[in-house]
Structures are given as structure tokens and as C-alpha cells.
Design a protein that fits this description.
158 residues, alpha+beta, Jelly Rolls, two-stranded antiparallel ribbon, 3 helices, 11 strands, 15% helix, disordered N terminus
């Protein structure tokens, strides 16, 4: 039984995202959400969720890796508005899907890590007003046949 528990603990640790915080940067706890994508295919995932300004600001910064079906849901308000994300202090390449208040994905963009100074990091704006975004590993949306026009729903799990 001890061997089984040790093996389970090691597998769980290996499946989690690796985070390397610099000195002086405190860890942040995130909520979680069950997120469902519906279009040509239907796919449901359990993702971290950024619902406070502090959580949204940190996002996936300082991650050195992320499991293949892991990601983060960002809730940006209740009214659609244009937003832009950047990749400052983000170490892994990501896809971002912006969605509006009807739950329709309006954009999927590929984002590259930014090692430059803050002023030189590019932004990745939504082309239309949105209420949220989902960041996943680079290429995840294409690999899973999820595209602009598909729907997103979610249930917070806190």
C-alpha cells in the first residue's frame, strides 16, 4: 500500500505544472473551473481560473511546463470589451482563445514567451469585445479541432 501511495504521489506531482518563482514573488492560489468547448467536437477540461485582478495579472507567469490538457480560464468582467494579453514573465508558448458574453470564441491567437523588457513585449489583442479568455499550450486548440465560432461554457468549482 505504501508503494502504491508513493507512486500515486509521484505521478500527481509529474502531472502538475512546474512553476519557478523568482525571489520576492509569492505564490498565488487559483480557483478551478470545469470548461466545455462545443463545436465540431465537444471537450470538457478542469482548468485553473483567474477571477481576481491579482490572479489575472499573474496568470501563467513563471511556469516552466504545463500538462497537455492544462490551462487557465480568465474572467474579465460581465460586459464585452476589447482586451489584450501579453507574455511578460511567461516562459512557455501559449494559445489564447478570447470569448464573448454569448460564449462564442471570437479569436484564437498564438503567443510567444517574452524575455524582453516590459516596454518591448508585444500584446495580443482581441479583435472584438470579449468577457473572457482561455490560455492553453501552444497548438492545443488546433490539435483539438476547436476554432473561432465554437462555444465555451464553464462552471466554477472554487
Amino acid at each position: 500500500m505504501k508503494t502504491f501511495l508513493l507512486a500515486a504521489a509521484l505521478l500527481l506531482g509529474a502531472a502538475s505544472a512546474q512553476i519557478k518563482l523568482p525571489a520576492g514573488v509569492s505564490p498565488i492560489e487559483f480557483a478551478s473551473a470545469e470548461v466545455t468547448f462545443t463545436g465540431k467536437v465537444t471537450k470538457t477540461l478542469s482548468l485553473e481560473a483567474a477571477i481576481t485582478p491579482e490572479q489575472s495579472e499573474r496568470g501563467l507567469m513563471y511556469r516552466t511546463s504545463m500538462p497537455k490538457d492544462a490551462g487557465m480560464l480568465f474572467l474579465l468582467g460581465v460586459q464585452d470589451r476589447r482586451v489584450a494579453f501579453w507574455m511578460k514573465n511567461t516562459l512557455i508558448p501559449l494559445d489564447i482563445a478570447y470569448f464573448n458574453s454569448q460564449g462564442t470564441i471570437v479569436d484564437i491567437l498564438q503567443m510567444k514567451p517574452c524575455k524582453a523588457t516590459e516596454a518591448n513585449c508585444p500584446t495580443y489583442p482581441s479583435s472584438k469585445p470579449v468577457v473572457g479568455a482561455i490560455e492553453m499550450n501552444l497548438g492545443w486548440f488546433k490539435k483539438n479541432s476547436i476554432k473561432a465560432g465554437d462555444k465555451v461554457t464553464f462552471k466554477m468549482k472554487y
